Amino acid sequence: MGNDWGKASKADLQRVLDSAGNAIWKYCKDVKLPPIQVGNSSESPISLFKRAENGDLQVKLTSKDRFWAQHSYQFAHEVCHCLCRFKDGDKTNHWFEESLCETASLFVLRQMSKEWQTKPPYPSWKSYSESLHNYAEKLIQDPERSLPQNMTSAQWYIKNKAELQKNDINRQLNAVIAKELLKLFEKDPQQWQAVFWINEKKSDKKVSFEEYLNDWRASVPVKHKDFVTKIIEMFGLNIK
Question: Which residue in 45, 119, 189, 228 is a FRET match for 94, CA 20 to 30 A apart?
C-alpha cells in the first residue's frame, strides 16, 4: 500500500478497503484473481495493465485523509475493472465497462452503509454508515445522472450511442446506465460473478454493442445467461 494517504492511517484504510472489496467479492466465490496492491496517484484513480513484480494486480487511488466514502467509491470502481479482467483491444464498447464500474461503486457504498450499521470495522465507526449512504444517494438522486422521464434505456442508448463510442469515460453518461444496472445487481448480487467473463472475447476487432453483449452472454456459465439476457433486452437488442 502507498504511503501518501494524508491523515488516514494505513491500518484504518486497510479496514475500509477490505470492507469495500468484500462487498463485491463475497458474491464472486467461483472466480479467482491475484491479490490487489493499492497505491497513490496524483492524477486519477486507475487500474494498471502492468502487474507488480510478484504478479499482483495494481490499483492507484487519489483519495486521501479519512474520507472513507471516497476511498470506497474509488476502490470499488477499480476492483470492478480487475473483475472485468481489463484487457487491451477495441474500445468501441468500453463505455459499458466504465458504467459497470460506476455501478460497482454505488453498490459497494450501499452495501457498506448497511453492514456498518451493525458490523463496522471498529465499534466507534458505526456512525460512518450514514455518510456512506449519503455519498451514494447524492449521486443516485442527481437528475443529470438519471434517465430522462419517459425515456427507456434503449431509447437513451440510441440517442447517446455516438458520444459513448467516442468518449468511453463520460462520467455523466456512464452514471445514467450505472443506475439502471444497479437495480439488477441489487436484486441478484450473485450476478457480479458474470462480470468476470465480459472481456473474454474482446480483441482488436471492432464489434457492435449488440455483438459485444452477445459475446458476453456466450462466455458466461449457464447460471448467468438469463442475467446477461436481461441486460441485452434492456437496451432493446437481440439475442443471438
Answer: 189
- Residue 2 belongs to a domain: no
What one-character DSSP code corresponds to residue 37? Answer: E
Is 47 strand, coil or helix?
strand
Does a structural domain hold residue 1? no
Q: What is the pLDDT of residues 110-163, one digit of tens each?
A: 999 999 999 999 999 999 999 999 999 999 999 999 999 999 999 999 999 999
Question: pTM for the whole thing?
Answer: 0.96
Question: Which residue has 460512518 as its cell numbers?
Answer: 128
Do 128 and 178 lie in one domain? The reply is: yes
Q: Are residues 100 and 155 in the same domain?
A: yes
| One domain for residues 107 and 182 | yes
**Structural domain range at position 20:** 10-83
Q: 36: which strand partners?
A: 57
Name the domain count of the chain. 2
* Three cell numbers written together for 56: 499482483
Angle of helix 128-141 versus helix 94-118 axis, rounded to 10:
150
